[in-house]
């Protein structure tokens, strides 16, 4: 109708100038992108605002994705120069990898994590909302994610006990009790009704009933647990037994536990450190002391001490395993260097009987720690250790 009366283009008719003309000559992709990047636009929202403002040059499209689809377009982050990626397209670390990195940061609360997640310090491969990202691939609550249980909810208890279940057959019952007792976990569970599936799960764990614990975990997985803090019943929490720092190992085999090499003992502690949140220093010290005792039990009845020691020295343990190895080797070297005093004359059937390694260890531990408990089995040499430790102790104390 207006062909001969002023018609130019549909863009002119709609008030958009030449921007939407089919015959539009757009600025080349690289030059257009350089121009946009120089504007310092931070996100898609700011880009859309610019497009609506009418201040965008007419040879730069408002829909660059469509215009440059075949000639260089990658993403809006590339277009703006922010290199940001839509959350649905981001490549995050696996749950276990991300959790390990987050735990290493030492966050104690969700608030601390949220502040870090909003900062430039968070790597792009760790999500700001891990509960959403890992909802179906391992998420067990904030205590598990941070490695710090500041409160006990049903979700937190389930996560904590679930992390322990795969290791039940590698731990002693007293170790399991110590782990579950830290930070008031057992007190929280005791506040739940007797019929609570969580109580049944903890009961199974304490009794090393792996199958029963796994069955409880499957059943609990079908429930919708909440993150509300469990109200602990009034009453004092029983005090922890003193850590047996001076206890010597039993020479009898650890009942019900698999026979582990020295490397196996350290590896078990390393696995525990990686998988289970241990934040109570007394519990950690107890587990380390117990592991030293298990190493001694192995060495004292080993058929090839040198091979066991070589494996121990060449192993590359984690922080807990390193502390165990350092403490054990200090005791072992101290016992081996023990000087036998003149006049030592303990004999058996007329033959001079030098102190064995266990007896040397007793004297060394008395000299270093001041006291020691020796609960080794019959025939291990406790009588000789008791009758001769005074002379050995005095000689080595003065040397």
What would your notes on this structure say?
With 399 residues, the protein is mainly alpha-helical. It has 3 domains: 10-80, no CATH class; 95-124 and 138-220, no CATH class; 252-399, no CATH class. It contains 20 helices and 2 strands. It has a two-stranded antiparallel sheet with strand order 1-2. Helix 15 packs antiparallel against helix 16 (281-300), helix 16 (281-300) crosses helix 18 (319-336) and helix 19 crosses helix 20 (382-398). It is elongated, with a radius of gyration of 34 Å. The chain starts with 9 loop residues before the first helix and ends with a helix.
Q: Which tags fit this structure?
A:
399 residues, mainly alpha, 3 domains, two-stranded antiparallel sheet, 20 helices, elongated
* Percent strand: under 5%
Mean of pLDDT: 79
Order of helices and strands: HHHHHHHHHHHHHHHHHHEEHH
Q: Can you tell me the residue ranges where pLDDT is under 50 for at least 5 consecutive residues? A: 236-255
């Amino acid at each position: 109708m207006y062909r001969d009366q002023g018609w130019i283009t549909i863009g002119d008719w709609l008030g958009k100038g030449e921007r939407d003309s089919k015959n539009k000559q757009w600025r080349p992709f690289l030059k257009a992108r350089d121009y946009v990047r120089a504007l310092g636009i931070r996100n898609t929202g700011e880009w859309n605002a610019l497009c609506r403002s009418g201040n965008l040059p007419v040879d730069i499209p408002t829909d660059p994705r469509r215009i440059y689809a075949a000639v260089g377009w990658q993403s809006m982050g590339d277009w703006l120069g922010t290199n940001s990626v839509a959350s649905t397209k981001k490549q995050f670390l696996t749950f276990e990898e991300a959790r390990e990195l987050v735990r290493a940061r030492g966050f104690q609360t969700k608030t601390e994590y949220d502040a870090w997640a909003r900062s430039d310090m968070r790597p792009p491969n760790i999500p700001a909302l891990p509960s959403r990202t890992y909802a179906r691939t391992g998420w067990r609550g904030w205590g598990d994610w941070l490695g710090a249980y500041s409160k006990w909810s049903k979700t937190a208890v389930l996560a904590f006990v679930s992390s322990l279940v795969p290791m039940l057959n590698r731990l002693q019952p007293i170790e399991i009790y110590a782990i579950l007792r830290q930070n008031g976990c057992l007190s929280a569970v005791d506040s739940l009704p007797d019929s609570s599936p969580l109580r049944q799960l903890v009961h199974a764990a304490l009794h090393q009933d792996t199958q029963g614990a796994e069955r409880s975990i499957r059943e609990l997985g079908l429930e919708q647990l909440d993150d509300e803090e469990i109200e602990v019943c009034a009453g004092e929490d029983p005090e922890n037994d003193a850590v047996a720092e001076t206890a010597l190992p039993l020479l009898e085999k650890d009942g019900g536990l698999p026979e582990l090499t020295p490397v196996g003992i350290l590896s078990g502690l390393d696995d525990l450190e990686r998988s289970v949140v241990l934040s109570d220093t007394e519990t950690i010290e107890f587990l380390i002391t117990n592991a030293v005792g298990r190493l001694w039990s192995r060495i004292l009845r080993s058929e090839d001490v040198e091979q066991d020691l070589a494996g121990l020295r060449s192993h590359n343990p984690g922080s807990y395993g390193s502390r165990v190895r350092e403490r054990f080797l200090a005791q072992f070297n101290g016992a081996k260097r023990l000087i036998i005093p003149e006049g030592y004359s303990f004999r058996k059937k007329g033959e001079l009987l030098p102190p064995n390694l266990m007896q040397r260890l007793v004297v060394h531990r008395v000299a270093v720690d001041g006291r020691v408990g020796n609960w080794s089995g019959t025939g291990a040499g406790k009588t000789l250790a008791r009758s001769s430790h005074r002379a050995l102790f005095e000689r080595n104390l003065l040397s």
